[in-house]
Design goal:
By secondary structure, this protein is of the alpha+beta class. It folds into 4 domains: 22-177, no CATH class; 181-249, no CATH class; 252-441, no CATH class; 459-581, no CATH class. Helices cover 46% and strands 12% of the residues. It has helices at residues 2-12, 75-78, 93-111, 114-123, 126-133, 162-177, 236-250, 278-288, 292-300, 338-352, 365-371, 382-394, 400-411, 420-437, 459-478, 485-495, 497-514, 518-529, 544-581, and strands at 21-26, 28-32, 38-43, 52-57, 72-74, 146-151, 181-183, 190-192, 261-264, 268-274, 315-324, 327-337. The strands form 4 sheets. A 4-stranded mixed β-sheet has the order 3-2-6-5. It has a 4-stranded antiparallel β-sheet with strand order 9-10-11-12, sandwiched between helices. The longest helix has 38 residues, at 544-581.
Amino acid sequence: MMLTALNDFARERGLVDDPLYETKPVDFLIRLSAKGKLLGLEPTQDEKGRGKPLSIPRLPTRAVNIAAGFLADNTKYVLGHDPEAREGKADKGAPRLAAFVKLVKEAAADTKVPELRAVEKFLEDDAARAKVVEERAADEWTGSELFAFVVGDSLDPVHLLPEVRAWWEKRSAHAAAQGKVGLCLVTGTVGVVARTHPKLKNIPEAQGAGAALVSFNADAFESHGMEQGDNAPVSQQAALGYVLALNDLLRKSETRRFRQGIQLGDGSVLVFWTNSTAEQESQLLALLDPTEEDLRRLLEAPLIGLEPGALDARRFYAVTLAGNSGRVAVRDWFQTSVGEVKESLRRYFADLRLGAVAQDKPTPIWRLLKAVEAPSGRGLSPDVATRMLGAALRGHPFPRQLLSAALDRLRLPPSDDKLEREQLRLRVALIKATLIRLPRSGPTSLEVSVSLDKSNTSQSYVLGRLFAVLERLQGAALGDINASIRDRYFGAASRNPVTVFPRLLQLSVHHASKAEAGGWLEKKKGEVMALLPSESPFPPVLSLENQGLFAVGYYHQREDFFTKRPQAEGKAAKDASSKSDD
């Protein structure tokens, strides 16, 4: 189903309209005379060093094997120059050049096209090729520069001449016809089966040369006399289609590492597509993984991409891929409708809303996950990130590991980073969203408000509020200190309240006597404590869910102080001053 959807995407977006050719950035044109003499090396790079996009015969799949392109290829094949050989690596320049020349000779012999004869003569001239290499300093060659040929005053590369194109198409059709014919598992039609599949590019943790999603390269995969692609017959056209689709979604853009993908940690990426329009896909990506430009636009028109549309019944597809050297693994795959994804995103944004000031702009997934990773920089396991984003798109419960990770991060002393307040908001927002979603599959529901809920008598929530009051009392009395009660006691207070709160309450009496606004904060402390049960106000242990409620209550009360404390404490200080004067 997944490969079928990808193949359909490639056909609908015109990615396989010309299966024998692909658009690549060509860095240099080698201009030759009609007799094959070198006239010059013409660079085509723009101001950013990018080559001119040209349609060239599709380059073959290669890793350690030698496989030449036709009339357009890199330095190693066109010039026989391998810059890596200088570092002690085996020099494969000669066999690569020979493979490239062989194709040109074959075409020239069959077609008698003069331009092909000119290219053939140039390639056989060692001095001419060496002169091209000398056009640049030795350390400027990388070996990946792409070349094409032009002859005389022509503006058209040799490989695009009509007679040359016709020969290449005929030769390719003949080569394809030599393959085994079978029923394609992707299209359901009979076609030539692909022995090996093209490689995916830009997969995290995969080889730079690309990695295969479908491959059979060991004896253990052979059964009933079937080898390689015969084990799961996919036609050459379908294999090319799904790979072109994924490579198009995964390619880099001006502003993103993946044109239509969301990176999950260091080792995986989620790519999605629809059978609606590219505009719909762009809107969904801007919400899930907004760039700075997306955030500026969304501030002017918040969440415009979630507006109901006529295309909501169209299909939405998402796959999460991870690299492992030369292979690609599928971590998750699902399909739904565009409308259902929009509804899930509405719920997702609502669940993450936290604090008196509503957050109408979306927060990138990676930023949420970054907020709860360990201080060492070690992120969450890839499956947690995958499940979290899948839950956001499908409206499912978040993984419990997110709750545990966020609480673990809260128990550590906050850094001196100016972003600490925002990091705290993100961590508690994840806790809140996880708590709301966990019970949705059960008989009961857990309501967690966006901002301070003074009517909430949940013991864990009230204890979190009380901790925030005690922290504020300490701050009012002592000012900035090296280790606040949050630094020293937050973890223990949220796990085992009975072991910590009696001591903190004793300290709070001392703090209240020293704080200018101690009376107002003492009153607030009494209001909060009145919501606790009188018999056993401090339980010995809180469950993971209740530890989450504790964190939410703490954040709500803390943020309430930020918005109301200046006026309230200012009035309290003024009243105290008036009484002193009397």
